[in-house]
Specification:
This protein is about 30% helix and about 25% strand. The protein starts with 15 loop residues before the first helix and ends in a 5-residue tail after the last strand. It is an alpha+beta fold.
Length: about 120
């Protein structure tokens, strides 16, 4: 007699907010990163009442592409900090979610002084 095999198909969905939290925690650990770029709205919030995203994640051919906007600290080595962001974000997202990351695009929106941090 053959045992019954339950072939239940299930799925896991991970919110963009969860991915943003992972990225934000990674960014807090990287020297030279002041913060995620603030959300921008249209003129007084009237033209575009929805704030723009600071981070966008999309899946393309079974791999995630992450676009992240950051503000960096004045005096840091921009290229080195951006390369570190790319590597650490990719590693963290892949390790914590199991989703392969094909690209991490870093957009530097501003350079802030130590006083502004």
């Amino acid at each position: 007699m053959q045992p019954k095999v339950n072939k239940t198909v299930s799925s896991v969905r991970i919110s963009e907010d969860v991915l943003e939290t992972i990225v934000q925690n990674v960014l807090e650990e990287i020297p030279g990163v002041a913060r995620l770029a603030p959300r921008k709205t249209g003129l007084l919030g009237l033209i575009n009442p929805e704030p723009s995203r600071r981070m966008v994640t999309r899946i393309d051919r079974d791999a995630a592409i992450v676009d992240v906007s950051v503000e960096l600290s004045y005096g840091c080595r921009l290229k080195a900090v951006c390369a570190e962001i790319q590597q650490k974000v990719k590693d963290a997202v892949q390790d914590m979610t199991g989703i392969a990351v094909s690209r991490v695009n870093v957009h530097v929106s501003d350079i802030v002084s130590a006083d502004a941090e």
